[in-house]
Design a protein that fits this description.
6-stranded mixed beta sheet; two-stranded antiparallel sheet; single chain; 18 helices; flat
Length: 469
C-alpha cells in the first residue's frame, strides 16, 4: 500500500511539474503484458484521472468495464492531489480505499507477481534497526483512517458508497491508559518495515518504551568545590604518564641516578572529604511467576512484565545490578546469569514465557542467596495465592522446606524482601504473618494494573535521587 501510494504521489509530480513522460512508461509496461487484475486496473485508472487521459489510454484494457473501479480511481486521484503536500495525513484514507482490492487473496497474489518489479520500497527499512514511537497508538493518525467512499456518500446525500467501507476507526489499545498497541500487532507492524528484525529485540523494545515514562530520573554526579587534595604517598611514574607528574625530589631520594619510566615516581592525592557514608544503590532480584495462569507477554500486554521492566531499568539507571528470573514450577524456569548490568540480558529473560507449573519456584532463591551475598540486594517476587502451596512443599533435591529457603534467602540477601501478591488481604493471614516475622514486606494488588503503581513507588523509594541526601 505504501509503495503504490508513494508511486502515485511521485509519478504525478514528475508528469505534471517536471514534464517527464511517465504516461509513456506505463504504456510501455502494458504493451509488454501487464496484469489484468482489478488492483492493476484501479492503479492505471487512477493515473488516467490524474493526467486527464481517456479510459484505457495507458494500455490497461480490461475485458469488461467495471464502474466501481472508475469510481474508486476517481476518489484516489482526488486524494492524491488533495494530500500531495500533506501526504502522511492522506495515507490512512488511501489504505482504506485500496483495502478491498488487497483483501481478496487470489486477486492480490495474481497482481503481486506483476507488481514485484515495481515494489522498489518494499524492503526500504530492512536492517534499519529500532524505530522509536511505534509502540504508542497515534490517535491523530487513527482519526484519519476514513474510507473516502463514506465521505463521498455523505457529501452526495443518498449516493451509495462503493466497495467495503470502514467509517471512522476508533482508537483503543493496551497498557497504561490503553495507549499502546498489542505486542503481537507491534511485532507484525515493525516486520512490515524491517522484515529481518529480531523478534526478541522488538519485544524488549516494546516494554522498554512503555516503561520509560515511569523510570526514575538519571542520577546526577555531585561535585564539592571546597574539597582539598591531600598527598597520600607516591607510586611509580610510567612513561605514558604526563611528564609534569614526576616528583623529582622523591625520585632522587630513591636513587641518585634517575631513569624516567624505570625508577621515577609520582605523588598521589586524595580528597579531604570523608566519603565513608557514600550511598550505593542495592542490587535487585526480580522473580516473576510465569506459571500456566500467566499470559504470554509477546501476544498480550503483560502488567507483571511491565512492572519488572520499570524496576529493573530504574535500578540499572541508578547504577545497581539486576538478576531476573521467570519461574513456573514444577516445570521450568529461566534466569539471568547472576546479577547483570545489561538491560538487554535482563529484558530478554523478563519478556520470555514459560507457561508451566502453578507458581514461582521458591528453590530458585538458592542460586543467588544460598550463601550470604557479596553485595546486598532487594528481593522482589511477583506472584499470586499459589505461592503458599509452593511454600508448603519441600525441595526434593535438598529435602529442605521452602519456608526455610524463603527465610534464609532474605537473610543472605541482606536487603529488603517484598512479596507482591495478587490476592486479598483477608486470605492466608496466618501464612502472611509468618512471612512478615521473617522480614518480608507483603504488597497486595487486587488487579494487575496496580502492579505499575507498585513498581513506580518501589523504584522512587529505592533508586531515585533525593535532594536531601
Amino acid at each position: 500500500m505504501a509503495n503504490l501510494y508513494a508511486d502515485l504521489l511521485i509519478n504525478d509530480t514528475l508528469q505534471r511539474k517536471k514534464s517527464l513522460q511517465m504516461a509513456a512508461v506505463y504504456q510501455k509496461i502494458n504493451q509488454q503484458g501487464a496484469s489484468t487484475s482489478k488492483l492493476w486496473q484501479f492503479y492505471m485508472r487512477t493515473f488516467e484521472y490524474l493526467w486527464k487521459l481517456d479510459r484505457g489510454a495507458l494500455g490497461a484494457k480490461p475485458k469488461k468495464h467495471d464502474p466501481m473501479i472508475d469510481a474508486d480511481a476517481s476518489l484516489a486521484a482526488s486524494l492524491i492531489r488533495s494530500y500531495a503536500k500533506n501526504w502522511l495525513e492522506g495515507a490512512g484514507r488511501f489504505a482504506a480505499l485500496l483495502y478491498p482490492y488487497m483483501i481478496k487473496d487470489k486477486e492480490y497474489e495474481k497482481a503481486r507477481k506483476v507488481f514485484m518489479i515495481y515494489l522498489d520500497a518494499e524492503y526500504a527499512g530492512e536492517g534499519g534497526g529500532m524505530i522509536a514511537g511505534l509502540v504508542e497508538i497515534d490517535e491523530e493518525g487513527l482519526s484519519s483512517i476514513i474510507d473516502p467512499r463514506v465521505e463521498a456518500a455523505k457529501r452526495g446525500g443518498n449516493q451509495e458508497a462503493s466497495g467495503d467501507t470502514f467509517g471512522r476507526v476508533e482508537a483503543g489499545g493496551e497498557g497504561p491508559r490503553q495507549r499502546y498497541l498489542n505486542p503481537g500487532r507491534y511485532i507484525d507492524l515493525f516486520k512490515q518495515i524491517n522484515p529481518i528484525v529480531d523478534e526478541q529485540e522488538l519485544i524488549n523494545n516494546y516494554y522498554r518504551e512503555i516503561a520509560l515514562p515511569h523510570l526514575v530520573s538519571f542520577p546526577l554526579e555531585a561535585a564539592n568545590p571546597v574539597s582539598l587534595s591531600l598527598p597520600e604517598g607516591t607510586e611509580s611514574w610510567d612513561i605514558s604518564d604526563p611528564m609534569d607528574e614526576i616528583d623529582w625530589i622523591e625520585s632522587a631520594v630513591g636513587s641518585p641516578e634517575i631513569f624516567p619510566g624505570y625508577n621515577t615516581v609520582k605523588r598521589i592525592y586524595g580528597s579531604d572529604i570523608d566519603d565513608a557514608e557514600t550511598k550505593k544503590p542495592l542490587d535487585v532480584y526480580i522473580g516473576i511467576d510465569c506459571s500456566g495462569s500467566m499470559g504470554n507477554p509477546r501476544q498480550r500486554f503483560s502488567w507483571p512484565v511491565l512492572a519488572a521492566t520499570v524496576i529493573g531499568l530504574s535500578a540499572l539507571r541508578a547504577g545497581a545490578k539486576v538478576m531476573g528470573c521467570l519461574s513456573g514450577e514444577p516445570g521450568s524456569f529461566m534466569e539471568t546469569d547472576d546479577f547483570r548490568s545489561s538491560d538487554v540480558e535482563v529484558l530478554t529473560v523478563l519478556t520470555s514465557y514459560l507457561g508451566t507449573g502453578y507458581a514461582y519456584g521458591v528453590p530458585r532463591l538458592e542460586t543467588p542467596f544460598g550463601q550470604p551475598a557479596k553485595d546486598k540486594a532487594h528481593v522482589v517476587i511477583v506472584t499470586d495465592d499459589d505461592i503458599f502451596r509452593m511454600l508448603g512443599a519441600v525441595n526434593e533435591t535438598t529435602n529442605i522446606s521452602n519456608w526455610v529457603t524463603m527465610e534464609k534467602a532474605l537473610a543472605h540477601a541482606g536487603g529488603v524482601g517484598t512479596l507482591v501478591l495478587h490476592s486479598q488481604p483477608t486470605w492466608h493471614q496466618e501464612e502472611v504473618q509468618r512471612l512478615k516475622k521473617m522480614g518480608w514486606h507483603v504488597y497486595y494488588v487486587t488487579n494487575e494494573q496496580q502492579l505499575l503503581e507498585f513498581a513506580s513507588e518501589f523504584s522512587q523509594n529505592h533508586y531515585s535521587v533525593r535532594t536531601d541526601d
